[in-house]
Amino acid sequence: MKLQAVVFDLNGTLVDDIQFHFEAWKALAERLGVAMTPPIFQSYNGLKNEDIIPRLLGREIGPALVDALGREKEEHYRALYRPHLAPMRGAPELFARLRARGVKLAVASSAPRENREMVIDGLGWSTTFDVVVANEGLRGKPAPDIFLAAAERLAVPPEACLAFEDAENGAIAARAAGMTVVGVTTNVEASTLEKAGAALAVADFTALPDDLDALLS
Questions:
Q1: Which of 33, 46, 57, 196: disulfide with 167, CB 3.0–4.6 Å?
Q2: Phi and psi based region of residue 178 (left: phi greater than 0; alpha: psi -120 to 50; beta: remaining)
Q3: 85 alpha carbon, distance to own chain's centre
Q4: Are residues 59 and 34 in contact, defined by beta-carbon separation less than 8 angstroms?
């Protein structure tokens, strides 16, 4: 099958920022008196804040508190990461390579709007992608909704899409949508992403094979 579109996760995939997310979540957890360890964080990675925060606290809470705690965490994350903002190695070259052959590009991200804007606008990518899909109003990863929405908005069958993901939950979601998944090993091992459904795992975009069409399942 010919590759028609590529759908990128944002955090940890197009930018190597997951450690800054972990530090922000850990600070919030310490203030709230709850645990936040790397394994706990990885179980949350890729999920929406509205799904993460009740799990973090171990109880259901109202939307106003979810919003307030989420804003606290995200403001801290942006303050930590903004001075380090940089594209994943090989990303600009990959965009140019895909555009040259007419492949459509999308972002499918669980990140709040302010975080998406910090990265996409801050890196000069505001016209790079055909669509940017957020999961407001959709089920969060590992449900496939955000990837299915991206394919629908691109008018491309999911089977003709590559999805790039750094998180286990994201890889599961993209695979469930019918996309071929390439894992980016910024924060978990290749074996974890492959068990979650990735056909291939790479350290960054410079490590991709020349023939991307051959990856499509």
A1: 46
A2: left
A3: 16
A4: no
Distance CA 167, CA 192 (A): 9
Question: Are 130 and 108 spatial neighbours (Cβ–Cβ below 8 Å)?
Answer: no
The residue type found at 39 is P
CA–CA distance, 191 with 180 (Å, rounded to integer): 16
Concatenated DSSP letters of 62-118? -HHHHHHHHHHHHHHHHHHHGGG--PPTTHHHHHHHHHHTT-EEEEEE-S-HHHHHH
Closest-CA residue to 103 (of 130, 76, 85): 130
In tens digits, the chain (217 residues) has pLDDT values of: 799 999 999 999 999 999 999 999 999 999 999 999 999 999 988 888 999 999 999 999 999 999 999 999 999 999 999 999 999 999 999 999 999 999 999 999 989 999 999 999 999 999 999 999 998 789 989 999 999 999 999 999 999 999 999 999 999 999 999 999 999 999 999 999 999 999 999 999 999 999 999 999 6
Name the token pair of 45.
């990675």
Kind of pairing, strands 131-134 and 161-165? Answer: unpaired
Sign of torsion, CA 125 129 135 140? Answer: negative
> Hey, what domains does the chain have and what are their CATH numbers?
5-17+87-215 (3.40.50.1000), 18-83 (1.10.150.240)
CA–CA gap between residue 128 and residue 149 (Å, rounded): 18
